[in-house]
Amino acid sequence: MDISVVAAAREDDSPLDEPLRVAALADRLGYREVWAGEGPTWDAFVLATAVGLATVRVTLTAGPVPVSVRDPLTIARGAASVAAVIGRPVGVALGTSSKRVVEGVHGRPRTRPAAALAQSAEAVRGLMHGEPGEEIVPGSTFRRRQQPPGGPLTVAAFGDRAIAVAAAHADRMLLDVVSPEQVRTLRAKLTAAAELVGRTPPRLAAWLPAAVDPEPESLRQILRSVVGYLTVPGYSDVFTAAGFGEAVDLARSDATPDTLLAALPPEAANALALVGDAPTVRARIDAYATAGLDEIAVVPATAGDPAGERTLTALADLVSG
Fold it and tell me: How does DSSP classify residue 308?
């Protein structure tokens, strides 16, 4: 099981420079990869550059970036530009994001997202492997000047069509906040989809919130990051099976996020996160590995644990040599 670190994931009220502290700590502790997520606050490529300049060893993955907002050349050029500045491999992760982000924040239409993901993944994969001197895009008079960014192409997926895109084009498929049972199901779907297109299945990774020996505010931060999943098909069943059906029903009544947060007890974090003392978290990691996960991208809770130091330190010896 590989362990990487997510420096910036979802929007919250943590300090703006917290991702840089998380990344610097991950680098010092020997983690080999840091993810720079994108959202309304941080541009993934700018954050990845800042992380690269503040660290020594880690490789970077920028994203997931929403394919309805960025064109393939912008994505591949962004990765190559970061790699040129920091002198280390940089990968990109693609995703469809949500209507709330694509249309509500960027003002761009989110139409046929699975088709947009497929078109972007195919194009980005080709662009990420282009060599200097080649046409920057087919038919262009401009020539490529930068070296390939050198990192993997990751596709965030959950539904069947997105899984098919990952199977056809990605080096790695990314899941977000899933249970071991979901991993087992999604691993089987990824394997079947890869067989259909004659490819070796991509590696399977998941972003998982984590807090070792959590403070109450750490659990609250984790729960706030997952309340939006209460009504999502596939996730609502996980919460219901874990005994939180009342919260699922409340979410279906269009309750506010603050109301849902108040309705979830601290132990609800156990359903989709790595929470507890170190032995408990390590056992949970083993369960994910048994279910078929190749990599856990730890999203450390930083509330009550600045930079996620307690969590990242407790898990550092799990990083493969």
Answer: G
Cα–Cα dist 210/299, whole Å: 6
Say how far apart CA 222 and CA 217 lie, in whole Å: 9
- Please tell me the predicted confidence (pLDDT) of residue 320: 59
Please, are residues 79 and 88 in contact by the beta-carbon 8 Å criterion? Answer: no
Q: What is the pLDDT of residues 204-263, one digit of tens each?
A: 999 999 999 999 999 999 999 888 888 777 778 778 887 888 888 888 888 888 898 888
Residues of the chain with pLDDT under 70: 320-321
Q: Distance (Å, rounded) from C-alpha 35 to C-alpha 219?
A: 22
Q: Which candidate, 182, 153, 183, 177, places its Cα nearest to that of 63?
A: 153
User: pTM for the complete prediction?
Assistant: 0.94
Q: Kindly report each contact of residues 125-128 with a partner whose C-beta sits within 8 Å and lies 24 or more positions away, as own/partner.
A: 125/153, 125/169, 125/170, 127/72, 127/73, 127/75, 127/76, 127/77, 128/76, 128/79, 128/80, 128/92, 128/153
- Contact present, 142 and 134 (Cβ < 8 Å): no
Burial (CB count within 10 angstroms: exposed 0-12, middle 13-18, buried 19+), residue 317: exposed
Query: What does each C-alpha distance from 92 to 14, 18, 28, 277 come to in angstroms?
Result: 24, 21, 23, 33
Q: Which of 239, 113, 122 shows the shortest CA–CA distance to 179?
A: 239
- Please report the pLDDT score of residue 231 as a whole number: 79
pLDDT of residue 321: 47
Say if residues 239 and 230 touch (Cβ distance below 8 Å).
Answer: yes
In this structure, which topology does domain 2-211+271-318 adopt according to CATH?
TIM Barrel (3.20.20)
120 by Cβ neighbours in 10 Å (0-12 / 13-18 / 19+) ranks as buried
